UniProtKB/TrEMBL annotation:
GO MF term list: DNA binding
PROSITE patterns: HTH_CROC1
Chain ranges of the HTH cro/C1-type domain: 12-59
InterPro entries hit by this protein: Cro/C1-type_HTH, Lambda_DNA-bd_dom_sf, LexA-like, LexA/Signal_pep-like_sf, Peptidase_S24_S26A/B/C
CDD domains noted in UniProt: HTH_XRE, S24_LexA-like
Name of the protein in question: HTH cro/C1-type domain-containing protein
Xref: SUPFAM superfamilies: lambda repressor-like DNA-binding domains, LexA/Signal peptidase
Amino acid sequence: MKWNEVAKVRMKDLGMTQEKLSEHLGITPGAVSHWLNARRSPELEVIARILHILDIDEFKVDKNGSIFTSADFKNSSCTTKTINCYPLLSKELIINYVDDLGSNEADNFANEWIESGAVILGKGFWYKVEGDAMLSPTGFSVPSGSLVLFDMGRVPQEGDLILVMSKNNSELSFKKIQSDGHRRLLVPMNPRWPVDVITDEHRILAVAVESKLKLK
């Protein structure tokens, strides 16, 4: 079943109207009607929020956009992927709990959790980018204010975007890792920013796997 079909069945079971759902979402009933009747397609994050309101917190989405709830998982296709929520951690939280990032201790202080269908191998968390180091004059960019999902379980490879902490001043850097002979470099997308050499004074925290920019 498509997500909107699952939602309508669940709304009927709960006795929830479109008006009530719109109140929970903080949008107009008309917008909800467009989504539920497949006249418009919301972002995956919005779908996850709607299903959460309807008490469906665990589901998978296949490549055709069909939804499988927990009751369907045993018979679901291997092409499905799980939608999970990860904490949005501030710079201060990451620095203060850097030795415990692999656990859930810092998560308790997160004010926001954001959905993603990305494959996370280790501990995952979101971080809001600060500064213009990854603002490229052409092509792909990760501008200041972007939300980036990091995976602590991945081994950094050439060209990966990584989050690094300086052991000396406890500053965070978000740059691309590149090799130059025997040296490993932190390379910004913005040519106005300096290239840094990775030394023993740097601690690689995680590899970026997804980015998004919220307008509101």
